[in-house]
């Protein structure tokens, strides 16, 4: 058995990743050691073998850099959330999504929930992609049922021009959370963010 992916190449000494985003599929017999994906051919190896890495960086960082890694890294796209009882309990205590996603202690606690449960190779900071809007003076609320509510949506070039310069002090929780998360999982997992 070997793994097929359009963005990594496997070799006899381990995995050589060419990208952070790896899609894995299992290949079983009948392929004569070669398989194709999106018009690319990759040579598979007979059995997965661990390889040593001189880097002390987390596995996901090594793979993103293109280093050979002992196995494909795993991280969870869904990260923390309603599928976890521990998250639901915390959400009952802190019903505001903005409070949960903009309070450093809560961000760290929620971000670590899936890591503590599953130990993936990446820990995703609990956040929302719209979190920077208030730092641009764009009023934002996140309704538990409706989702994001922007009172004054930007619908024109004039709306863009009316934005205030970003006030980074209003996003202090992002940097603080990343710093604490790095301390909580030193070298064991990559810390991933999107804000």
From TrEMBL:
Residues 73-82 form the Uroporphyrinogen decarboxylase (URO-D) domain. InterPro entries: UROD/MetE-like_sf, Uroporphyrinogen_deCOase. It comes from the Eukaryota. One of its GO terms (molecular function) is uroporphyrinogen decarboxylase activity. PROSITE patterns: UROD_1 (PS00906). This is Uroporphyrinogen decarboxylase. GO terms for biological process: porphyrin-containing compound biosynthetic process. It comes from Actinidia chinensis var. chinensis.
């Amino acid at each position: 058995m070997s793994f097929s992916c359009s963005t990594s190449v496997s070799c006899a000494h381990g995995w050589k990743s060419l990208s952070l985003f790896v899609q894995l599929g299992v290949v079983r017999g009948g392929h004569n050691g070669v398989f194709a994906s999106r018009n690319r051919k990759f040579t598979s190896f007979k059995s997965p073998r661990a390889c040593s890495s001189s880097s002390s960086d987390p596995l996901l960082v090594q793979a993103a850099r293109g280093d050979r890694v002992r196995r494909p890294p795993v991280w969870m796209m869904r990260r923390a959330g309603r599928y976890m009882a521990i998250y639901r309990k915390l959400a009952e205590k802190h019903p505001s999504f903005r409070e949960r996603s903009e309070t450093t202690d809560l961000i760290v606690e929620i971000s670590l929930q899936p890591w503590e449960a599953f130990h993936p190779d990446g820990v995703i900071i609990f956040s929302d992609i719209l979190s920077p809007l208030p730092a641009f003076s764009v009023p934002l609320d996140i309704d538990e049922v409706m989702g994001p509510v922007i009172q004054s949506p930007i619908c024109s070039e004039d709306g863009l021009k009316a934005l205030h310069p970003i006030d980074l002090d209003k996003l202090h929780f992002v940097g603080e959370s990343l710093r604490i998360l790095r301390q909580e999982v030193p070298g064991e997992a990559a810390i991933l963010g999107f804000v």
